[in-house]
């Protein structure tokens, strides 16, 4: 049986990278497998959060996910801290994971920056909590963006070591699903940095709450080079900003990069950018409209999360009991 799990932090607005890299695949998978999608609030507190803002962010992200196409009747949509198994299993798995494995995680190095000594321990063990999220449901498939590949490999290593240490076949090894032409959407200001919620420059990303005018302005000002588009993908080598915009066009139009270039090779950005902005607005405007209609409806959003958490607990609690039995802990 295929069981899908994935998560997103309730920090900031959903951006086009989150949507094209991950969430669009989640929406599609709802009809193909049993799916659990989680607003990972415990992950959010690995860096400082203002409590009221976090609370509001959980609801806002839930509204955004529903607006983007998740249907709480066809998937389990919930927030992580409502299911205690995540934190409890993370502890057991922290005793399975090795320091050396975590020391190799590049995201910790990027997020802790120069102040590694001042980073929270939670930021360091972030990928173990992520492994617990996935393994608590014995998930087989995990749709994510390219940036999560290393964490997924770690989750597989943890699952394999746990099974081996305790002589059980308890956890399936989860498969990353990294699909589509936009698995790593880059910043609009710097083709070598990923589009990110935490980028201090709002001009670097397209938020799913941006108006049509804002989107048009951001694309118009997006960094590019002076050359026209090549007619083959090889011509994008060494042109990261151009490659990013072409990748976005491909993802939004449902074409391959080769098809986009076959059609638009020779075009300058003065022609290409307005066409790209138009396509973006057509994708984003209906999501924004649904989001605005739902974002302040706390009663509905809380009810969705409570129902999702109950369904999630019903799957995860028996798995934690199995883990306790395997390890020799209290049942
Ligand atoms: N730029 C991206 N391109 C493709 N996929 C992306 N994802 C994130 N950025 C891109 C995917 O979105 C999902 C949610 O990830 P998350 O909650 O960990 O998002 P994030 O890392 O908080 O997003 P940001 O924007 O990168 O936030 P900050 O700046 O706070 O770290 C994941 O599947 C991720 O791969």
Automatic annotation (TrEMBL):
Reaction(s) this enzyme catalyzes, per UniProt: tRNA(Trp) + L-tryptophan + ATP = L-tryptophyl-tRNA(Trp) + AMP + diphosphate + H(+)
Motif ('KMSKS' region): 194-198
InterPro entries: aa-tRNA-synth_I_CS, aa-tRNA-synth_Ic, Rossmann-like_a/b/a_fold, Trp-tRNA-ligase, Trp-tRNA-ligase_bac-type, Trp-tRNA_synthetase
GO cellular component entries: cytosol
Chief localisation class: cytoplasm
Keyword annotations from UniProtKB, A to Z: Aminoacyl-tRNA synthetase, ATP-binding, Cytoplasm, Ligase, Nucleotide-binding, Protein biosynthesis
E.C. numbers: 6.1.1.2
Any one GO molecular function term: ATP binding
Annotated positions binding ATP: 9-11, 17-18, 145-147, 185, 194-198
Subunit structure: Homodimer.
Family: Belongs to the class-I aminoacyl-tRNA synthetase family.
Primary role: Catalyzes the attachment of tryptophan to tRNA(Trp).
Protein name in UniProt: Tryptophan--tRNA ligase
Protein's gene: trpS
